[in-house]
Amino acid sequence: MARGSGNIRGARIGSGPLGEPERGDLAPRTTVSFWCGKDHHTQLSFAVEAVVPETWDCPRCGLPAGRDRDDVPVAEGTSRYLTHMGFVRQRRSQEDGEILLNEALAKLRGTS
């Protein structure tokens, strides 16, 4: 089995020299910790002059995460799925439905 030379191991061909001198220095950064309701801990780096958000979506579970471990944000509840009949029942009472049904049946029977 032939062994290749390890000269370029870990680097892409044509990527150029590694290190800071050619690319420039990184902007000054600050590390901020976020915790979600499932106690997942996430550390993110932000530029010092950047505005750090109050909440961040947890990359592990998707819940909102806050900067205070003891006071994590609560996920906004999602509304339950409603069928067409569910929406109708929000707008009309059972009695209104009976009246409309009787009117429609009367029209179909031709007795109105």
From TrEMBL:
Pfam families named among the record's database cross-references: RbpA
Co-factor remark: Bind 1 Zn(2+) per subunit.
Keyword set, alphabetical order: Metal-binding, Transcription, Transcription regulation, Zinc
Cofactor: Zn(2+)
One of the protein's GO biological processes: positive regulation of DNA-templated transcription
Superkingdom of the source species: Bacteria
Residues binding Zn(2+), per UniProt: 36, 40, 58, 61
Region (Disordered): 1-25
Record-level Gene Ontology MF annotations: bacterial-type RNA polymerase core enzyme binding; zinc ion binding
InterPro entries tied to this protein: RbpA_sf, RNApol-bd_RbpA, Rubredoxin_Fe_BS
Protein's UniProt keywords contain Glycoprotein: no
Subunit description: Forms a complex with the RNAP catalytic core and with free principal sigma factors.
Family: Belongs to the RNA polymerase-binding protein RbpA family.
Function: Binds to RNA polymerase (RNAP), stimulating transcription from principal, but not alternative sigma factor promoters.
Entry protein name: RNA polymerase-binding protein RbpA
Organism of provenance: Streptacidiphilus pinicola
Gene encoding the protein: rbpA
